[in-house]
Amino acid sequence: MHIVKKKSSIAAAKAVLAGFVGMMAVQVHAADELRVCAGKDELPYSNDQQQGFENEIAKVVGKAMNRKVTFVWWTDPRYSVRDFLDKKQCDVLLGLDKGDPRVLNTKPYYKSSYVFVTRKDREIEISSWDHPYLKERNFRLGFLPDSPAKNMMLEIGRFDDMFDYLTELTDFKSTRNRYIKIDERKLVNDVITMKLHAAALWAPSVAKYVAESTTPLNMVMIEDNATRANGSKIPMQYETVMGVRHGDDALKAELDKAITASQQEIDAILKKEHIPLLPI
User: Fold this and answer.
1) What is the SS3 string spanning the chain?
2) Among 10, 111, 114, 120, whose CB has the most other CB atoms within 10 angstroms?
3) pTM, whole model, 2 decimals?
């Protein structure tokens, strides 16, 4: 009986040891992996074919961290933090505005601007919301719902003039409590076909399409001097950060170090995308 008990004890010890080794292997694997939450169909930023510039940036940063990058795909950006990052389905989100309170912000990895997109042959030279063209009711300016451009159109009294275009962009559906994906190439194409005189858009989202257009286009950074009637600023330039869960200071520090080490490669990816960059 004593021998059997001894053999059973040895077997139990081996089982415990095997379990411990297995747990360690999982932990090591997890430490060697960087799970990035990204849009499944959000070009030019990302897609599930990994064709977006944020996909490329994630891989560069992962390489600097000596981690294998795996992507976890979301389809609705409203829930990317709540249902993915906070629930630990992923470790990091790219492409957030500096100061986003939902996450612990890394250092910025680029800064860019909203732009006015126009046809070159129409010679519409605007770079500021103060330009008199923008006050004219027949001047058609395209913009996205819930953007700084929308806020400025409200401020200068031009929002109602473009309401028909906005409803068309959203397929006549309300954006209240609903995510409606708008392909910003449509606005660029509407500038090309002269349905619009101009479009006010976030440069990283359209720079590629402007550069690739067979119709020559201008893309001019909007001056960062827009204000509301009460004097408060409506920013046109933003720094972009990565976000990790609050309390994950170790990963933030690791990402900050990787961003610094990879900045030249990150800039090269952005420049290849024709994104205008500003000093951080």
Assistant:
1) CHHHHHHHHHHHHHHHHHHHHHHHHHHHHHHCEEEEEEECEECCCEECCCCCHHHHHHHHHHHHCCCEEEEEEECCHHHHHHHHHCCCCCCEEEEEECCCCCCEECCCCEEEEEEEEEEHHHCCCCCCCCCHHHHCCCCCEECCCCCHHHHHHHHCCCCHHHHHHHHHHCCCCCCCCCCCCCCCHHHHHHHHCCCCCEEEEEHHHHHHHHHHCCCCEEEEECCCCCECCCCCECCCEEEEEEEECCCCHHHHHHHHHHHHHHHHHHHHHHHHCCCCCCCC
2) 114
3) 0.86
